[in-house]
Design brief:
Elements: E1 3-6, E2 27-28, E3 31-32, H1 33-43, E4 48-53, H2 57-64, E5 73-78, H3 85-97, E6 102-106, E7 109-111, H4 115-119, E8 127-132, E9 143-146, E10 149-151, E11 157-166, H5 182-190, E12 194-199, E13 203-205, H6 209-220
Parallel strand pairs: 1-4, 1-6, 4-5, 8-12
Antiparallel strand pairs: 2-3, 6-11, 7-13, 8-11, 9-10, 9-11
Length: 221
């Protein structure tokens, strides 16, 4: 199974830090944010990773290179000056991801999720998403889950962690362009085509300078 790291976003909420540095390369303790994902993926047995880039993308390519120093083979899906958002970004990278299900994870998520569990996961649906308890900054949550199936229900919702497995067929109705992933997920939930799980471990969305500072303190402790 290949993995994809979403790293093309502008990081507006992180400004001014991201005016000169792409968010995946922001330092968090001894490593850059994206390096934690790369190391976790390599430790879990992944060998091939696709990274999409846009804003200041050359910096990411220059720093990470071909992935050899992480025991990985890294390929890049360059979206140019304008990021294609999550849905469009994954669709654009499909030629690099192959014909089998693949893992997708956000570059700005710090987690201790055991990726080896997903590498061995047998996907029977269009996707399998990892949900977490709602953080303070997102109390309304995103999706509900019942018996390991995602459902469109307003009650007892959890937050999407940014970690999931997708079948290439998930994107069959899509086309090249700029669009988010969320509406696509909800359409497949309506047809009962997405499984899920709730992870109770560490999973932090590093979306603001304050959350980055919190992570740095956590790592130093």
């Amino acid at each position: 199974m290949k993995a994809m790291i979403l790293a093309a976003g502008r990081g507006e909420r992180m400004r001014p830090l991201t005016d000169t540095t792409p968010k995946p390369l922001l330092q968090a303790g001894p490593r850059r944010l994206i390096e934690y994902q790369l190391i976790n993926l390599a430790t879990a047995g992944f060998t091939e990773v696709v990274i999409n880039v846009a804003w200041l993308g050359k910096q990411i390519i220059d720093v990470l290179g071909d992935g050899e120093k992480y025991n990985l083979k890294i390929s890049y899906s360059d979206e140019g000056d304008q990021a294609l958002e999550t849905g469009g970004g994954i669709y654009n990278a499909l030629p690099l991801l192959g014909e089998d299900p693949f893992l997708v994870v956000n570059a700005d998520v710090w987690t201790d999720y055991p990726f080896e569990k997903l590498r061995a996961f047998e996907l029977r649906d269009k996707a399998h998403l990892v949900l977490i308890n709602n953080p303070e900054h997102h109390p309304q949550g995103d999706f509900s889950i019942r018996d390991d199936r995602l459902i469109n229900d307003e009650s007892s919702r959890f937050t999407f962690s940014g970690i999931g497995i997708y079948s290439p067929e998930f994107f069959t109705p899509s086309s090249k362009g700029k669009y988010p992933l969320g509406p696509m997920i909800r359409n497949y939930i309506d047809s009962d085509d997405i499984s899920g799980e709730v992870y109770q471990g560490m999973c932090i969305d590093i979306g603001t300078p304050l959350r980055l500072e919190t992570l740095v303190k956590l790592l130093s402790a």
